[in-house]
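Lecture notes, continued. The same structure-token format from the folding unit now serves as the input rather than the output. Read the line below as a description of shape only.
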């Protein structure tokens, strides 16, 4: 029944997707470290896996989607020292900003968004279990995992232990028994945020967070575990080592990794300083165009970020929007009749094509192409002199379902109405200004402000967004 195939990093093959429980999907995606705004590279993960989730739901699956927040780590501690503010305050701020960005990009909330700091006891217990199993050891308040004791360590990143040993030799850390061992727990330096443990005060290592939160909400074995390709090693490899050693069960059946967004062919990353944050980009481009940009390439291909491609994405979004508007308009005027059988069969074929593309490792790029085939069809039908309301409705429903519900590239109806109202007011305000009726212009600005609409003057004209 289930025809989805997905590329599993673990086996390096496309495999038929088989869930552990019938019709239920347990999915965990590593979330952001909340010490700063997220950039468009991070957004690729969250937008793409939002579409994976939406598509599985479209197929009738019940998806439990867990996405964590890493709200304590080295970068947060550094940021807290820099800003002279508690880690928790910084994390809280950027979680809020994260949701603002994601709401704008049409990313649905996960079923749960657990925060690392809310699961500290679970992490302490997990570390203790690994110590008790002799798979971890404590040194001056740090606790390390004995990677070499997990015979299949390296299986996700497809490195043999020999290769890993050779690669790890350069790293020097006197405390570790072996350079490949990794930290489960880190002793606190003076003044750092910390929690009490049997090994003294400290904080969790990054990998143990995900192992513990995944188990808490999804159980020992997940269907899908995902993130950007840089997480494959060491983060996901280490999650596997910890979880499988703790639970004596496979940790996740399918591992999915998206490729990077690059800037001048180099990974976009905060440490390289070549990032475009979603927050900045939202001021320059429409959020739907950003979403389109992220989905118009298959997730396993890198994308090079340029303004030019986003401008093209703006055009594509405008074409989708116009088609929907025309259908809406025609729907109101068309007479009742019946759904044209030829149209019905074309729509069925489009559904099949759309599903074939998405079933093939969630190929959103090709699914978008099918969406444009449907738009072309819609544009033909709205121009017909005689067309039934039912035919127009069928086209509209097809687009709303595939382009809207699954891909999230069509604004929900309420937002469309809002957009029309706001744009009419902006136009009126510009006219008022031109005719020097500043009282009216200010009135409109205040009205928009009261509705949470922020106006910005850009070279492309006045843009607006919801604050
Ligand atoms: P971080 O907050 O750094 O842990 O990253 C959050 C997510 O974004 C992870 O899944 C990363 O793999 C992913 N990521 C980071 N940089 C990029 C990039 N340039 N392109 C695509 N994904 C990225
Ligand atoms: Zn993780």
């Amino acid at each position: 029944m289930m025809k989805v195939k997905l590329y599993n990093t673990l086996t390096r093959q496309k495999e038929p997707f088989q869930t552990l429980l019938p019709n239920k999907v347990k999915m965990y995606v590593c979330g952001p470290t909340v010490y700063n705004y997220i950039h468009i590279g991070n957004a690729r993960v969250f937008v793409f896996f939002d579409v994976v989730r939406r598509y599985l739901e479209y197929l009738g699956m019940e998806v439990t989607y867990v996405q964590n927040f890493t709200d304590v780590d080295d970068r947060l501690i550094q940021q807290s020292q820099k800003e002279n503010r508690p880690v928790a305050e910084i994390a809280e701020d950027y979680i809020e900003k994260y949701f603002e960005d994601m709401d704008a990009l049409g990313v649905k909330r996960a079923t749960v968004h657990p925060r690392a700091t809310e699961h500290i006891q679970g992490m302490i217990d997990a570390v203790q279990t690994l110590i008790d199993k002799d798979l971890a050891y404590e040194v001056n308040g740090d606790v390390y995992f004995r990677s070499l004791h997990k015979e299949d360590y390296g299986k996700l990143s497809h490195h043999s232990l020999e290769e890993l040993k050779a690669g790890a030799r350069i790293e020097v850390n006197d405390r570790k028994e072996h350079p490949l061992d990794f930290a489960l727990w880190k002793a606190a330096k003076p003044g750092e945020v910390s929690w009490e443990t049997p090994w003294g005060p400290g904080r969790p290592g990054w990998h143990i967070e995900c192992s513990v939160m995944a188990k808490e909400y999804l159980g020992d074995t997940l269907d899908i575990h995902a993130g950007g390709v840089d997480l494959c090693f060491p983060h996901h490899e280490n999650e596997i080592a910890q979880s499988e050693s703790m639970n004596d069960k496979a940790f996740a059946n399918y591992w999915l990794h998206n490729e990077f967004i690059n800037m001048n062919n180099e990974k976009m990353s905060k440490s390289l300083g070549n990032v475009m944050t979603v927050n900045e980009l939202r001021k320059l481009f429409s959020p739907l165009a950003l979403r389109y940009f992220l989905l118009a390439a298959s997730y396993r291909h890198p994308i090079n970020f340029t303004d030019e491609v986003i401008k093209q994405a703006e055009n594509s979004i405008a074409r989708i929007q116009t088609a929907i508007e025309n259908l809406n308009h025609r729907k109101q005027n068309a007479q009742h009749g019946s759904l044209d059988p030829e149209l019905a069969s074309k729509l069925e074929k489009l559904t099949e094509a759309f599903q074939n593309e998405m079933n093939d490792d969630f190929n959103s790029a090709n699914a978008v192409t099918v969406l444009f085939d449907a738009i072309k069809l819609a544009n033909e039908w709205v121009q017909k002199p005689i067309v039934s309301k039912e035919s127009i409705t069928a086209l509209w429903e097809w687009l709303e379902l595939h382009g809207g519900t699954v891909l999230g590239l069509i604004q929900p109806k309420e937002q469309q109405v809002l957009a029309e109202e706001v744009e009419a007011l902006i136009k009126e305000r510009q006219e008022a200004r031109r005719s020097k009726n500043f009282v009216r212009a200010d009135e409109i600005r205040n009205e928009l402000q009261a509705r949470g609409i922020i106006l910005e003057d850009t070279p492309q004209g006045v843009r607006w967004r919801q604050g």
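Point for the exam: The chain is about 50% helix and 15% strand.
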